[in-house]
Amino acid sequence: MKVILLGPPGAGKGTQAVRIAEVLKVTRAASGDLFRENLSKGTELGKLAQTYMSRGILVPDDVTIGMVNAWINAKEQAGGFVLDGFPRNLHQAEAFEKQLDGKGGLDKALYINVSKDELVRRLSGRLTCRNCQTPYHISISPPKEEGECDRCGGEVYQRADDKPEVVETRIRVYLSETSPLVDFYREAGLLAEVNGEGTIEEVGDALIAEIT
Hints:
CATH class of the largest domain: Alpha Beta
Largest sheet: 5 strands, parallel
Number of domains: 2
Shape: globular
């Protein structure tokens, strides 16, 4: 089964993608993970993507599409996948649709809907382990030891694109460029919308119900 997760930054797509992938027994990736992987390998695409991410600006389509296409064409994704954070605009969606033409097409687009005020609260307090990418939050779920990951002991830090001055930019960009995807997938009969302001378990259960 091939599933994408839609929603604004801070909606909880990454957390829910892990559970959905486990239920479906498929692999998962976030577009941001693909960017960072390319950067860690020293690719030119990865370095270019980071210059945009650090400013809270969407990465150009040709860079993003190239990374995603390489990932979904790998043998590990032959049995299906969960993709978080892609596509982000109509051009990407159309390119993605063509890429999946010979693979049976997309099965479901899950949309996690969260209000702007709640997004700002979540994002401006978000922390991440630099080593294993485990997410934390300053007020909701801080690490037991300040600055240290509970899981691996790595450094816990605030990513540049989660700082308050960048958060507002990220949300504005999402609303102007990404929101039309909801209508695109609704018209295609693939959209399932879920309220993202419940508990992690409530939101997860609602999403799982849409694909099982």
